[in-house]
Amino acid sequence: MKNSVEYLSETRAKLSVEILAEEFGPDYDKAAKTLAKQVNIPGFRPGHAPRRILEAKIGKGYIIEQAINDSMDKYYQQAVAEADLYPMSRPEIAIDEVPEMKGKGDKTALKFTVEVDVRPEIILADPATMTVKVSGMEVSDEDVTAELDALRERFATLTNVDRAAKKGDHVNIDMVATIDGQEIDDVSGVSYKIGDGNMLQGQDEALTGAKAGDEVEFTAELMGGAHEGEDANVKITVNSVKEAELPEADDDFAQLASEFDTIDELKEDLRTKAVKNKGDEAVAEGTQKLSDALLAAVEFPLPQSVVDEEVKNHLEREGKEENDPHSEEIRVEVEEGLRTQLLLDAYAKAFNVDVAQDELIEFLISQAQMYGMDPNQFIQAAAQTNQIGAFAGEIARNKALIAALRLAKVEDSKGNTVDVTTILGDAPEGETVPDFSAQEKKVKVSAKAEKKAEKAEKKPAEKVEKAEDLAGDFDPSAHKVDEVVAYLEAANDAEKARVLEAEKAGKARKTIMALA
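Structure (tokenized):
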């Protein structure tokens, strides 16, 4: 198989593929055998008619067409692999020529072209040149006391109290949320500890001071569900208020709550765990900050058709139209997520990151526990929806960030160096450190494609010259963003003000409003 690649842009490629008749032969034979079993030819059992009889009966063209349909995906996958391309959209395939299958010496070929959106080439920043600041790593006596108190709370006794609720109390509540008078959610008999702050913003303040039998009401922004981001009126009925009585922190408690005989031994173990927790927190904070720094250090384009498709799917899942006012916010989120994913995928490849099967299974089990599902059912569902690859990709990206963090300089809030390797251990076997200084840009957009792009960019300007005479009639909602921007650049102040007002009343696209 011969193939060549032409870059139409940094995110779109055109593959030209050629498979000679001789190479296409096995696929032609396979298609012929399949069709022979489906065709009834007098005098022959199904599938046993000679090739020339079958060809005379249904025609070579029909067999060739069947063979192309059956083998096209195989040829496409082989071509993108040989060209080192990473497709990101559905391919657009055009068949230019088909083989004649004339037998020995046939020089004809199957020729087709493929246009597809691809991952952009990214010149990666060297993590070794970056310094990441994380929170302090020191463990204080207060940290150990907090760990001990958290353990004591697990063995606390809850007692009903006839007083106003305060921070640390446990309340049993019923809750109803409404928007514009319509009930959208309700829960009953929920136990909540005042001060945890893990339900609704403003809930702790509303419950503080309430007694059993009281009703409290407040407004909160919903953090999930179909009404995420909307303000709801929340009414809570307090069923009971309970005070937690903690056991004494002594040797008896140490023996009850752990394998240790004394409270001092238990505290020492809690200190060790606190040190590990601080390390894990520092790594989590460091990877997030490093990810942001790596993103800020590079620029690369995104395939807009992929972004458009994801925005459309997002809106459809929420039951919204394509012109929904929130579509631009969704687009920003989609672009940020896609940019991060592409960058970390590139680092995963550069570091030669590998995802072992046991890592994948462990990750899937943890995800199942998070969703409260049986691990086997969760894994089966993931396999049926083709999500296993996505989970493996997420693990690889996380490992790539860890690999990058090992190279970066990590400091705590006091300027002390944090030894990431001590926290994480050595890099996995097979993981390599790339030579970031040796990177070269390989992708070159073809001159023909560049000229075509230049012509496309000039078209809006040509329209503007004619539009200057349309002052007062120009409707921004009927034009693309670049056309409106170009028109405004040529318009006088009065016309510019009129068009911007019309834009505000219509789509209110951010790029255009920036000119206000």
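The first strand starts at residue 2 and ends at 9. The longest helix spans residues 263-296.
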